[in-house]
Amino acid sequence: MQDYNEFLAEILIDEKTLNERIKELGAEISADYPDGNLLLICILRGGVPFMVELSRAITAPHMMDFMAVSSYGVGKRESSGTVRVAMDLQMDIRDKDVLLVEDIVDSGHTIASVLEMLQLRQPRSLKVCALLDKAERREAVVPIHYRGFDIPNKFVFGFGLDLDEYYRNLPFVGVVDLDKYKPPA
Ligand code: IMP
Ligand code: MG
Based on C-alpha coordinates, what's the Rg of the chain? Predict the structure, then answer.
């Protein structure tokens, strides 16, 4: 496996900055959802590190569930308009205050489809918390109620974001130099 230092163009958001911002989001969410009806839904797999830290930063009582979606076709680093549920929730979200937890909103197609699908299940409320917002790439209209950071139109990795499924464990968000990155064989 290639050492990420070989293709790391820059550290965009370091560990300390991530942790501080996530604590702020946690405090904001705790104040907004005081009554124990909050259900955090982590979008697998990229949302996992963010979900863990965010959940720890939320002092209000809350539940957790997980779902996996995958988008059809197009290039490997592009999301299409069509999203398929690869693993559905275990909980019934009806009348719950649902907060979707995502690593990044890029084109917006993923979150737009998930929102449309979950709305049909009649939650009491349905909102989005995204660690990163790459707004320049947006194609679908998606409301982001809690946003960690606005980022430029660059391909990033670390803190949940993968390159060919690796590097999600890194504690920072880094920019990839795609000329230097070699995909695993
Ligand atoms: P969207 O449907 O285009 O908003 O794409 C969302 C998904 O694409 C995210 O959940 C990520 O898995 C992936 N993605 C988008 N941009 C990046 C990136 O810069 N690095 C790694 N994954 C990304
Ligand atoms: Mg993802």
Answer: 16
Q: What is the pTM of this model?
A: 0.95
Under a CB-based contact definition with an 8 Å cutoff, are residues 57 and 27 in contact?
Answer: yes
Q: Report the nearest-CA residue for atom 20 of ligand 1.
A: 156
- Judge: domain 15-152, CATH 1.10.260.40: no
CA contacts within 13 A on the Cβ side of 148: 29
Mean per-residue pLDDT of the chain? 95
Atom of ligand 1 nearest to the CA of 163: 21
User: 3-class DSSP state for residue 132?
Assistant: strand
The answer to whether residue 106 is catalytic is: yes
Domain ranges in the chain? 15-152
**CA 107 – ligand 1 centroid, Å:** 8
The CA distance from 69 to 7, in Å, is 28
State in Å: Cα 97 to ligand 1 middle.
25
Rounded distance, CA 171 to CA 160, Å?
Answer: 9
Residue owning the nearest CA to atom 11 of ligand 1: 104
pLDDT tens for each residue of 5-40: 999 999 999 999 999 999 999 999 999 999 999 999
Question: Does residue 82 have a pLDDT over 80?
Answer: no
